[in-house]
Amino acid sequence: MTKSLPPGSSLPPATERSRWQRVASIRFGTTELNHTVLAAIGGRLWQFISGPLTVYLIARQFTEIEQGFFYAFGGYLGMQAFFELGLSGVLVSIAGHEQAAIESHDPEIARQGAAKLADLTTKSLRVYAICSLLFFLITAISGYYFFARQPSQLSWTAPWIALIAVAAFNLLLTPLLAILEGTGHARMVYRGRFLQAVMGSLAVWIALLANVSLWVAVISAVAQCAVQCFLIFGPAKSTLRRIRTSADSSISINWRHTVLPMQWRIAIQGIALYLATQALTLVLMETQSITVAGRWGMTWSILLALQSMAIAWVTAAFPQATRFSANQQDQKLASYWTRVSWASALLLVTGLVCFAAAIGLLKWVYPSLADRFIDPYSVLIFGIGMTAYHLAACLGYLVRAQKRESLYWAATLGQLGVAVACWSTCYFGGVNLLCIAYAATNALFLLPLHLLAYRIDHLKNPRNS
């Protein structure tokens, strides 16, 4: 039997779980991995599974110069963080609060919630339209001058402009997905992202085999954009229409007081994280060479997949942690999260060791492929820093489960410290020194800073001590 539609609701009611949903709900320790969680980690799992074939085809079909440009394109696209400024995460949170109001039994509260959600959607689309335009103009022009400095005869200009155009259009659609996720349609969004990951990989494989050089990146982006358009103008179309038609000119969201206070903290963390990770490919291209940047970019793509898998374990456990916190079961929360943190860290370490061993093995059986990666010893050293960062991130999730965001300053300062150390070593040394700097700053600065912030948070909140 279906639930009745709450008064004033602009969204469809939840329906009884289907057989697929019941089958998809499984138990993982004390964490329930339902269909939504499975959809959320599906994209990451696919990237982890498909990654080896992707890097093999890149090594086989691309020259080292093409490989360097390919991964540098991806690193430059990460500059989206400077334009979006964490807004999508804020929209998910605010949309969730307004959806809760919509489901209220008070018709007036439900009406106001629906009107505010409609206003939030309209204003966010306007903001993202400006962000997308600025992103296209600034990134396309600055990227052109950056890549033009590289000594290469490769034809990269047309693929670069086309890639930025597609990325800008994708950015324009971002707020609609955030609104959908926040209003209880996370499963739809996560399934779309999983399909994006699959279609993106298939597009890359086909394009690589077709020998279209750097147009591979464009074809992959177009395939993912097509999935996003299908989701918005297909399954989500009626939902988004209902949201927009609930607008009331007398009721609006105060952007300055509602959005900005939440956004700036997320924004500075996102920018600091970009500078400490994705930007390193560009720094190596500028300070070392295109081929060195390509080796780093290919290695980083696998490392990022491993890190995403470990974080997926944490995010899957997060709902259970919030329930422990809400029920004031502090001892259970501490014990549970300790197990989750160390188990996910062990998964990461195991993956890092296997990856380093695989590179070492390739040096014996397939030297030309092994040369497309950095040295396996450097991978292990870099992995120390990744493990330290992972444990720090686990602390952040633990505090967030208690409805606080008190570790944001430690995350920001820590990542900026990592970025300064890594950028400096890129100018004065090579990749090996970069890996040492990353490991040292994460293990000796970022993680201790998080522990200090966590201790301060406990002193201010003695119930959770």
Q: Determine the fraction of residues in helical runs and give it as a percent range.
A: over 70%
| Radius of gyration over C-alpha positions, nearest whole angstrom | 23 Å
User: How far apart lie the N and C ends?
Assistant: 44 Å
Give the number of DSSP strands: 2
Order of helical and strand elements: HEEHHHHHHHHHHHHHHHHHH
Given the C-alpha coordinates, what overall shape results?
Answer: globular
How would you describe the oligomerization state of the chains in this entry?
single chain
Fraction of residues in β-strands: under 5%
Largest sheet, spatial ordering of strands: 1-2
Residue stretches low in confidence (pLDDT < 50, at least 5 long) are 1-33
SSE class: mainly alpha
The chain-level mean pLDDT equals 85
Main β-sheet description: 2 strands, antiparallel
Q: Please work out how many helical segments DSSP would assign.
A: 19
